[in-house]
């Protein structure tokens, strides 16, 4: 029985919602009626918490909640199907955008602005840097910019190192010493200076 049905059952039986967890569904406790993530969330609650409607409801809803990235991707990648009207698509986009905003806590003009500018900033970044910024869970473009600059500086090869890498001889061959000079002469396999 879904949570809303349990709440209605409490009201019909004149029982306060504090008895929510004690309701039985054909001689079963709520724990056995819930399945999957909902059941796991219910089991994780203490016996006292299981009797509180709001606590059980919030725990079960939290278990099924998606991470913000899920809502962002769903919103950004939403496409119209053949069976949908454009009105349906617009309505669904509004719903997905609202879920995304709620999941990241964008409830003011400033946080919404940060969210949209950060999204656009990440679209500009190269994929490796964008992934790095995303993994660090920044909340503004300014924070993302600092991380992106740090990433570039720490992953930028030094000038000396890159020059050495391009000017080095092939050291996988045994004929080169550690100084890069030919170790064996072409005429014999005896070690000695190379005469040219």
UniProtKB/TrEMBL annotation:
<protein>
    <recommendedName>
        <fullName>SCAN box domain-containing protein</fullName>
    </recommendedName>
</protein>
<feature type="domain" description="SCAN box">
    <location>
        <begin position="72"/>
        <end position="151"/>
    </location>
</feature>
<dbReference type="InterPro" id="IPR038269">
    <property type="entry name" value="SCAN_sf"/>
</dbReference>
<dbReference type="InterPro" id="IPR003309">
    <property type="entry name" value="SCAN_dom"/>
</dbReference>
<dbReference type="Pfam" id="PF02023">
    <property type="entry name" value="SCAN"/>
</dbReference>
